[in-house]
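Appendix C reproduces, verbatim, an entry submitted by the partner laboratory led by Prof. M.T., so that reviewers can inspect both the input and the predicted structure.
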Amino acid sequence: MTDSVTHRQHAIDYVEFAVTDLAEAKRFYGEAFGWQFTDYGPEYAGIRSPHGESAPEVGGLRRDTQVQAGGPLVVLFSTALEESVQAVTGAGGTVVNGPYDFPGGRRFHFTDPSGNELAVWTEA
């Protein structure tokens, strides 16, 4: 976490993903969502939002031998859900649920090439 940001008490501050192939994970998230990365060696890369070089780190990709399914679900926001579906599948992700309606909007779940499940939603 190289950039100085204001941290808030008990707020989610950083999300870290285990990935089996760091280069492939960076390629996938960069292509699907425009994420940028700060490399900290061959086993870890910090995640910056797609809002430019000055964007703070919001998480990291940690190389591991395996990815365990389950745990908290990270949900991303999209202004164009169908474009996000195409970006995810075009980058090599797999849609595992949806898109479907829910109170307040639409969403879909996908897995990345390492098997991590995330979701993307949009307002109704």
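The two ends are 34 Å apart (CA to CA). Additional entries are available on request from the coordinating office.
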